[in-house]
Design goal:
mainly alpha; Tetracycline Repressor, domain 2; 68% helix; DNA binding; DNA-binding; Repressor_TetR_C; HTH_TetR
Length: 226
């Protein structure tokens, strides 16, 4: 993204940089528009029943992950540039509506949708970063991974159990491994949200959305003091 300039873009399009400013005011606005085009690739189908909120969440998660892998340049822009374009808003509205019709309301609705979005972006960003590093290296993916594992063996020498576990892993297809990891995390999150939804709909015992175990509470307090 740093290499992108209005002058270079104008030359690529066979027009001057001044011509581009007739359509956008600056580079950031241009990137916002392009980013919103990517959101347009994430298609969430219309829902037919409240129970399909899980389907909507899964379609969003897999669609967004695919878009990030297809357009790795967008990852550094997420959270930096606002996503208020028509496509981004449409995706968010469809997801919110699916959760709301299922019974999520108030802060629980906000937290639930936010959890799905945060998981999707957070789980995919390291994968995109890894692919970018491999692409920039002179070595192929296999050689790059072999070199990485050598570094792990040195760095984790004091953790034999960890090294033993790594030695049994099959890293021959990192794409499949990353996909399975993403699947596991997404299903686990949706299972947890489904439990939350049942509690939320049972007014006799509504849990505090921010409730956690004493250990988690202590970690949160420590982070706050830091």
């Amino acid at each position: 993204m740093e290499a992108l300039s209005m002058r270079k873009l104008g030359a690529r399009l066979g027009a001057g940089a001044t011509s581009i400013y007739w359509h956008v005011s600056n580079k950031d606005e241009l990137l916002e528009l392009v980013l919103d085009e990517v959101y347009g690739e994430v298609r969430i189908p219309e829902l037919t029943e409240p129970a399909s909120w899980r389907d909507a969440a899964a379609v969003f998660a897999y669609g967004m992950r695919q878009a990030m892998l297809k357009h790795p340049w967008m990852v550094p822009l997420l959270g930096v540039l606002p996503s208020f374009g028509p496509n981004a808003l449409a995706v968010n509205n469809t997801l919110m509506t699916a959760f709301e019709e299922a019974g999520f309301t108030g802060k629980t609705l906000d937290y639930a949708v936010g959890a799905v979005v945060s998981y999707t972006l957070g789980a995919t960003t390291p994968e995109v970063t890894w692919l970018n590093m491999v692409a920039r290296s002179e070595a192929g993916a296999d050689e790059w991974l072999t070199n990485l594992m050598r570094q792990v063996e040195v760095a984790a020498a004091d953790y034999p159990d960890m090294l033993a576990r790594y030695s049994t892993e099959d890293f021959s297809d990192m794409g499949v491994a990353k996909s399975l990891t993403f699947d596991f995390g997404l299903v686990a999150m949706l299972d947890g949200l489904e439990v939350r939804l049942r509690w939320h709909l049972d007014e006799s015992k509504p849990p505090d959305p921010s409730s956690a175990s004493p250990a988690v509470d202590a970690a949160v307090d420590a982070a706050g003091r830091g």
